[in-house]
Amino acid sequence: MEQVQRRQAHRAAPTFSELFTPKLVTVLREGYGLPQLRADALAGLTVAIVALPLSMAIAIASGVTPERGLFTAIVGGFIVSALGGSRFQIGGPAGAFIVLVASTADRQGVDGLLLATMMAGVFLLAIGYLRLGTYIKYIPYPVTVGFTAGIAVIIFSGQIVELLGLKLPGKEPGPFVPKLMALWQAGGTLNPSAAGIALLSIVTVVALKKWRPHWPGMLVAVALASLVVALLALPADTIGSRYGGIPRSLPLPALPPMSLDKAIAVLPDAIAFALLGAIESLLSAVVADGMTGRRHRSNCELVAQGFANIGSALFGGICATGTIARTATNVRAGAHGPVSGMLHSAFLLVFMLVAAPLASYIPLAALAGVLAVVCWNMVEKQAIAALLRSSPADAVVLGATFLIVVFRDLTEGIVVGFALGAVLFIDRMAKAVAIAESEQPLVADDVADATNGDRRAYDASEASDPDTVVYHISGAFFFGAASTVAAVLDRIADQRKNFILDCSRVPLFDSTAANVIESTAHKAKKAGVRFIIAGASPQTRRMLITHGVKRPLVTFAASVKDAKAQLRMG
């Protein structure tokens, strides 16, 4: 029977080609015609209009020139859609990467940033091809919520200089508290024009979202702010005055300078990019699945993210990942499949070729206002409120992750949040395990004929033998519960001749549990007690036998009733 089940499971396992076939291929196989192309073209244009100002704003906030954000959206976004495992994923620069990218660019320079991005792409390829993407889902929900909220706070704090037009005497500090102190000291340099432009942009985006939700609010806000600054000649920094504009074409692909020392220096950054990219892209794909009822291929998506980051770095772009807001916009715009994401990249390229000179007039305060709205939207207010109400454990994980991300480090926040969530989960599981001795009344309680009710309705044979004790374990028997169960099993009465341990309600049994049972079996043998394990699943039995829990220490029975029959037979 077990061999049949294994053969069936083997046949049901997806093949390599099934796991890593891009959704683009799947969509084209289903049939793709002019109506589908029209829907994808409209959705792609809508997303491109949203991505145009956002890509430049994210790049500037990341400490690099605005065109690098466009390169990322064009090259990385195209590859994500062409090779990805999600029908609707839109790739490009993401707000979640701003802090990491800015820190890497500051310490390692742009060449180091490009090398770290390329290495992150290689790591993502390895994660995908090794089929490790499935494990990303084990990151606790409070960790992702706290992490995202922490990033939003950090990004917003980094935009205050542009929002208010402040002039710092030196370089803006990276850590949160020193940054706030420097901003406070620079409060006297506030530029009313820049603050007014930022406020105008925020109000425009919020108002259009409320009254004209189908309008490209961010693009309208940036265009309106640029027009106001140009017509009134306001003293506000623009892309042209700060960066000299953006190029009108993509650069030729080129490898960043490489050396072993440089690769070792940027290795921690590359690992952080890969982990955050995996988390962010798969979260975005899950959001798209929830909106459409479709199902993405997680490992295929990670492979596409890997190629996208390598391609982005070759063209001078920054980290690319799946973007939740743009992906949701793509779905709401009526996209049919991955072609919309590919067209979104093509439209961005056309915009850059045609309208590059106009980008010089965009005020930096307007882009900062756009990012301020993005930060507000990143904070999942309802999820935070629900987690704070749900349980103290979830609130602790959420709060710890948020505080560590804001005041210490992003990667450290994820690691500590995950570890804390895992420990609290283990504690919950351990408390859910129950072990109890059977109730053995002199006369069994009356029960309905042919009852199929509670297992506490034992038969008369279980209640009639004073030399036999039966213990029942319920719940996952793993290392977290081992001490609790061991304490009970150690109290086996030496006066009893027979000991039956019912494991029929144990769904999980690990090596620590097997060690506890082995210790108990040796104690029982030494005391002259016959030990029978009843109801163990085939997996549990194999685990026990592997750890030496076998004859002559114990015998196995299919059920408590069969164990009793063994005792009667001697």
Automatic annotation (TrEMBL):
Entry's transmembrane regions: 41-62, 69-90, 110-132, 139-161, 181-208, 215-234, 270-290, 302-325, 345-374, 395-426, 469-489
Main location: membrane
The UniProt record lists the keyword Nucleotide-binding: no
Endpoints of the signal sequence: none
Compartments where found: Membrane
Domain STAS: 458-567
GO biological process: transmembrane transport
Cellular compartments per GO CC: membrane
UniProt keywords, alphabetically: Membrane, Transmembrane, Transmembrane helix
UniProt xrefs under InterPro entries: SLC26A/SulP_dom (IPR011547), SLC26A/SulP_fam (IPR001902), STAS_dom (IPR002645), STAS_dom_sf (IPR036513)
The name this protein goes by in its record: SulP family sulfate transporter
Organism of provenance: Mesorhizobium hungaricum
Source organism phylogeny: Bacteria, Pseudomonadati, Pseudomonadota, Alphaproteobacteria, Hyphomicrobiales
